[in-house]
Amino acid sequence: VKIGVLGTGGVGQALAGKLAEQGHDVVVGTRDPKATLAKADKDGMGNAPYKDWAAAHPRVALKTYREAAAHGEIVVNATSGHASLEALRLAGEAALGGKVLLDIANPLDFSKGMPPSLSVSNTDSLGEQIQKAFPAAKVVKTLNTCNAVLMVNPGALAGGDHTMFVCGNDRAAKDRTTELLKGFGWKHIIDLGDITNARGTEMLLPIWIRLMGTLQTAMFNFKIVK
Length: 226
Ligand SMILES: NC(=O)c1ccc[n+]([C@@H]2O[C@H](COP(=O)([O-])OP(=O)(O)OC[C@H]3O[C@@H](n4cnc5c(N)ncnc54)[C@H](OP(=O)(O)O)[C@@H]3O)[C@@H](O)[C@H]2O)c1
Hints:
By secondary structure, the protein is an alpha/beta fold. It has 11 helices and 10 strands. Helix 4 crosses helix 5.
């Protein structure tokens, strides 16, 4: 499958790497490919510069947001939450229309330091804002509630015995997403319903961040038991 992964950070790299390894035809999107490949320093999360990752993944091309989105039958939003709407505008409505848009972004606001707050919550969510701004895209919110390593390798923790959520308005888009998630190794996937449920999964972030501080690791996840 042709997949466009918008975002060059740890999440974009994890998703693009796994999808390419599984044989998908992946193009990663960024604002300015030349500038991104010229970066020599680690990013804010301590990740190696993108060019190091690119050297280890020669089959994954780096193009503009627009080109990567146009390439994909499925598009992944792995951009910084504060910039996702802008990144998707750069990709353009035409390149997103009719496609599954897997939204992994969290609307974290670091402007007042740590821990971050949410820039949208309670009665709205980033997932909904994206769906409203791009009505022809089939937005599925998922994978935003665990770290990038676990997203594509849930078996690395507790034998994969923990939970992933999906929500979105389009049944077929959620089925396609669930198939991808199962391919990554997810066994417990809960469909919460329409895209308004992104309010719930995005509002898990304040507790997720505090757990990371308390547990001193990002390798943990939620497990829902009844
Ligand atoms: N890290 C995790 O483990 C994790 C877990 C769950 C969810 N998430 C969510 O996943 C998303 C990606 O996280 P990340 O840690 O991989 O990287 P990130 O640093 O949050 O985002 C990096 C991406 O955002 C883009 N970006 C930043 N400012 C922009 C702007 N003004 N306009 C357009 N694009 C802009 C960058 O573009 P360039 O390529 O052009 O620099 C880059 O591709 C975030 O929303 C995050 O909250 C992360």
